[in-house]
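Lecture notes, unit on protein representations.

Consider one protein chain, 591 amino acids long.
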Amino acid sequence: MDGKKLEYKGEEALKELEKLTEKADEIQENILKEILTRNKATEYLNKYLGGSTEAWAFKRNVPVVTYSQIRPYIQKIANGEDSALISGHPITEMLISSGTSGGEPKLMPSIAEDLDRRTYLYNLIIPIMNQYVPGLDEGKAMYLYFAKSEMSTPSGMPARPVLTSYYKSKHFKCRSKDPFNDFTSPDQAILCMDSRQSMYCQLLAGLVHRKQVLRLGAVFASAFLRAITFLERNWTRFCYDIRFGQLDSSITDPNCRSSMSDYLASPNPDLADEIEAICDRGCWKGILGQLWPRAKYVEVVVTGSMSQYIPALEFYTDGKLPLVCTMYASSECYFGVNLKPLSKPSDVAYTLLPNMAYFEFIELENGAQSDDQDEEVSKDRLVSLVNVKLGRYYELVATTFAGLYRYRIGDVLQVVGFHNSAPQFRFICRRNVILSIDNDKTNEEDLHKSISSAKKLLEPYNVLLAEYTSYADTSTVPGHYVLFWEMIATSVDVAVPLEPQILEDCCAAVEENLDYVYRRCRTYDKSVGPLEIRIVEQGTFEGLMDLVISQGGSINQYKTPRCIKCNSALALLDSRVTACFYSPRDPTWIP
C-alpha cells in the first residue's frame, strides 16, 4: 500500500476519533447495552440481572469487584469449565497480568475479537504522531519488542502476557507492508523466547540500519535502558559481526540465525568503523543521537513507576530526543491514547476511548490516596466517563466484552482536561504498589510478608530486625530492590552485622517469598537485578523520624515509611550504611 493511501486512512482514523470523543456518553451507553446483551445468559450476570439488559439494573445490582472476587470463575474456566460462566463468547486465552493474587499471576479472560480492539488502538498511533512528526514513512523504527514464555492452564488454554499474545497473532505476523511501520527487527527475533538472543539480534539489526532509523523505542523505559546497557557491554561483538559479515556464534536459535542472514549478507568494515568510533568514546551521554542520527523521538512508557527512568533516558539522549508515551493499556483492557504525544512526561494525558469498554470511576476522597483494595465500594459512588470532574482523582473501573464486570483496574488517575466530551487523565500510580522496577509490582503487604519470613534466619544468632524500609534503585541497569535494615543484638556477645553468608541468605529468602512476577523478572527476563540489603547503624530510623518531623510531620501520626521516595531521607539512610549484601545473581529457586 502506497504512502498516499495510508495518509488517507490516517485522516479517516482521526475523523473517527473526533466522532468518538464528541459522542462519548452515547457510545458508552451503547457499549454497555452491547456487553449486557451478549452476556446476559452468563452465570455471573444472570445472578444479578436475571436476564435484564437495562443499564439501570446493571448500575443498581452488579457489584464492584476486585480480582479475589472473580478469581473462582476465572479459575474454573482455566480448569476446563464453560466460558458461559462469565462470557457469551468463547474465551480463547488467559492474559497474564503484572499483578498477582496470593503470589500467583492474575489471569484475565480474553476473547478472539479483543485482538481487533487492540489493533484498532495501535492503528491510531501513527496518524496521531504524524500530525506532530511528519515524514515517518521515510525511514525505519527500531522498536525493541520481546515475546515472553507462555504457560497453559490445566485445560490447555494458552496463558501469556498481552503483548506476547499480540506478537503471536495474525494481526502482527500477517500485517500488510506499511512504510509507516517498517521495523528494523525481524519478526523471528521478536518472537525468540531467549531474551538475550532476541536482544542481540534486534540491536544488531538496528545498528545495521542506523542511518535509516527515525524512531527508537520499547514498551517500557526499563526495557529500553536494559537494551542500552546490553549494547554497552556488547558493542565490540556487534562491530565484529558487521565488519566480517557473520553472526556471533552465541546466537544458536535457528530462526534468529536465518532471519539475520540478510542483515549480514556481506562484510561492512566502514559501518563497523563508524559504530566503533562512537561507542569507544568513553562517555555515553547523547549516544542515541550519535548512533541513530536521524532519530526524532524515543517511544517508551515513562509515566507512573516508569518515571524513575527519565533522568537516565535524558542522559543517553542528551535531552535532544523527546520521550513519547502514546497509549494507555493493560492486560484487562486497552483504554486510550495520548493526543499530544510530544508533551513532557509530567504532562502526559490519556484520552479514554469510549468504544473500548464501559468505564466507571470511584472518586477518591483523599486525593491520590486510593481506598483500600479490599474495601467494599458502594455502587452509588461510581461516576460515568463523561461525568468526572476536572482536577479530581479517581480509581478506574471497567466492564469488558470478555467477562469482567465493574472490575477495579487498580489505577489511580487524575482528570486534567477534556477532548470534546471525553475526559483526559494523568496516570498517578498503581493502587498499593510501593516497589516496581519493570513488570513487577510489589505492595506493602507482600514486602512485609517476605521480610517477616527472611528475618527468621536471624533468630538463631540472637539478632532481631528492629526496623526496615526500602526503595527501588534504578541507578544501575537492571534496577534492583534495596532494603535498609536496622538490627539489634539480643546478647552482648553477638556482633552486628553477622557473617556475610547469613545476610546473603536473608536476601535470597526475601526474593523467594516475593510474587511470581518478581521471580520471573529476576530469573527468566533478567529485568530486575539481585536484591540488596544495606545494614544501617543503630539509631538510624530514629534519625529518619526526626527528619520527617523536622519537615512538618506529626510525631503522633508518624509511621516508618516502608518505601523511601524522598531524596533527603535516602541520603540520610545511605550515610548510615555499614555493610551491603546481595542475593545470588543466578538464584537456585524458580518462579
